[in-house]
Amino acid sequence: MKTVRLKRKEIKNPYLPVEAERITTETFLGDELQDISIWSGNQEKRLEDLFTVDTEGNAETAEDVHIILSGDCSKVKRIGEYMTGGKITVEGDIGMHCGNFMSGGVIEIKGNADSWLGREMRGGEIICRGNAALYCGSGYRGEKKGMRGGLIHIYGDAGDFLGETLWGGKIIVDGNAGNMPGAEMQGGEIIIGKDAEIPGANMKDGVCIICGTAFDILPTFMLEEGKKNIDEFKTGFFEFSGDHANRKPKGRIYAKDYRIHE
Amino acid sequence: MSELLVKNAFVIDPINEINGEIMDIAVKDGKIVESVKDSSNVIDAKGNLTLPGGVDSHTHICGTKVNFGRYMSPEDMRAGRGRAQKYMYPVSGYSVPTVYGNTYRYSSLGYTTVLEGAMAPLEARHTHEEFSYNTLQDTMANTLFDGNWAVMEAVADNDLKKVAAIVGWTLAAVKGFAVKITNPGGTEMWGWGKDVGCMHTKVDYFGVTAAEITDYLIRANELLNLPHSAHLHNNNLGKPGNYKCTLERMQRTPDLNDKRQTLYMTHVQFHSYGGSKWADFCSKADDVAWMINRKPQIAIDMGQVMFGKTTTMTADGPMEFNLYRLYNNKWSNHDVELETGSGIIPVLYSKKNLVNSIMWSIGLELALMTKNPWQCMLATDNPNGAPFVKYPEVIALLMSSKYRDEEFSTLQKGTEKRTFLSSLDREMNWNEIAIMTRAAQAKALGIVDLGKGHLGVGADADIAIYPIKTGETDPAQEYEKVIKGLSVTTHTIKRGRTVSRDGNCLVFGDNATIWVKPKIPENYDISKDPEFIKRFERYYTVNLANYPVEEEYLNRNICIETETEL
């Protein structure tokens, strides 16, 4: 087991973005710390220039690496990109594109996550104890396939376009979701603890469960007869099929309560 | 001034009837000369294949619809990204890359002259702006006349000279190079949600047929003595059974010019379909090729389809709408007032799709069955059939029947019943490939006299050296070597300067735009015709004085002035 502690050094300009795709479990496998370059704004820096690095123990595979990030990381982007195993713990907030394309391992964020959390991820697990911003678990601009596998669990609220173009996997939000959760989704499952707005627009397949009120359900969704029970919740839900803007849609929205878009 | 000597080059230059000689090429001031005195600047070609710079006579790389393809497909921009280097800007995009992406990739394929296939006259300024960043190739633009109201009215009045006057003035005004006719009449009808079908449906209001529009424009083109012939994208593109329409168009075309073809038909692959619906869709390339073989007045480009993702874009709006209904993906549609329109959709050509497999076969059949390579250009109608970076693969397919058979065996079952590609065993040689990719294209475009497409004395020093030793490579067997060798040149020389070496561009480049200016007599100057001015002021949103593109928009300016018979 190897533990890597990275503490963000004091910074003059808190708005300067940092592109840190190299901070992922596989980077820290060897005994010696290699030169790891990171772009800060328009300058190429070494990892030690931006973080104090403190390592402990040895690791053979990425599975055995645990990275702990602390300090102000709210502008540090692309942490854990293409990660295959191991664990990353963020003691505070994290910047955009955290866990892009990850296929294994765990990322735990104790604060809030910025936009594109778990974008196009294929497996593994992301736990966010705060809120997530826009496009959580979605595809990038124009991309048809978003998140394809794994789990994202957000304890707080999620922003707009949660799970846009979702293809597989599961997203759980304990709080509210913003506009358009599950837009264009074609598989997978979204569970929202409280309210959401315009869910499932243009969905072809997949399930979107809203345990609060679903506002502005689109007129292209059809309300099925009778209230449905779902295994996990055991209470009555309204069931919608859709989006009938597509041919033969297999999508489902379950909502405790709903308002039709007028 | 600057001198350069290319030594030990294995030269194939069809226009000068050089077929594989080891020779030296001397360059002075951007032109090829007999010999040079200064021997300090020498490139050793080491016996590698050396051809004139490539000419692409039909591609879509600049202009509003290409630009729209870029911003409607952000996912395409994620593919094909390249970092900035000393003389290269960062690029992105695969099927519709940025302008720099296009120019760098063409340069590493050895291309030095490209022709944008369709420019709406009203949007010419945008096209020329993008041309000025297409720095490593000389550029030209076909100008669209398919739905031009003034032209259709003149055709309805049977006034050939007026058609010629309108065409001549417009070409000079927008700095265009040739007359492009895309689905004549169809684009105007598409404004009303209709199409013209084959050639004999009358266009609403104007009362002219597609056949008449094309006939008049072909003749007007010859009256103006334009270097290139009329450039036609025929009606009924992509519809099963459209080969009859193609044959009729070829049959109708008179032989008016002894130097070059009278009609250039583009992406004929899309126009050689048999059957009556997609269920009994089949290849009719044999009939079309048979007609081409007996009509020297026709030249075609094959419009080869290659498998993979791409973006289709054309001024043929109704066809794109039909495709959109087939694919149910994104779609863009655009109307250019009084002139033309366009449509754009992304597509995926798949080997699992029977129709796509047949389309792939038809392009190759056309090229292999056209006996005279001077009549058939190699093009994919970039990016409609495939992005131009697939050209080396197309060449390898033409040169190796082994490669064709291997590819054919991976296609959807049933392809063999609808095509006859597997029965063709022609294997092209290097000379034929050189004809199809540069010599014939330069001749069809009428720019041989400008020094394009050949390596004779006085020609522009546009030279491409490929890392292939033709004596040691058997293209029929080692097709992978052919693909690899043709993909990246060791040197691409443009106007005597090495612009690209092993795929890296070495200069920012300095391209030229070639355009035509017919000498029209005063009494045929349409811009002084009161009726034309009145109509223009009434229907266009721009002022007549603001319509022409100023010469400042052109980086380097090559104007071809032609004597007219008006």
From TrEMBL, chain A:
It comes from the Archaea. It catalyses: N-formylmethanofuran + 2 oxidized [2Fe-2S]-[ferredoxin] + H2O = methanofuran + 2 reduced [2Fe-2S]-[ferredoxin] + CO2 + H(+). SUPFAM superfamilies: Alpha subunit of glutamate synthase, C-terminal domain. InterPro entries: Formylmethanofuran_DH_suC (IPR017550), Glu_synth_asu_C_sf (IPR036485). The keyword Translocase does not apply. The keyword Transport does not apply. Keywords: Oxidoreductase. GO terms for molecular function: formylmethanofuran dehydrogenase activity; transition metal ion binding. Its EC number is 1.2.7.12. One of its GO terms (biological process) is methanogenesis. Pathway: One-carbon metabolism; methanogenesis from CO(2); 5,10-methenyl-5,6,7,8-tetrahydromethanopterin from CO(2): step 1/3. This is formylmethanofuran dehydrogenase. The lineage of its organism: Archaea, Methanobacteriati, Methanobacteriota, Stenosarchaea group, Methanomicrobia.
UniProtKB/TrEMBL annotation, chain B:
Gene3D superfamilies: Urease, subunit C, domain 1. It is an enzyme of class 1 (oxidoreductase). It holds the Pfam family Amidohydro_3. GO terms for molecular function: formylmethanofuran dehydrogenase activity; hydrolase activity, acting on carbon-nitrogen (but not peptide) bonds. Keywords: Oxidoreductase. NCBIfam families: one_C_dehyd_A (TIGR03121). This is Formylmethanofuran dehydrogenase subunit A. It comes from Methanoplanus endosymbiosus.
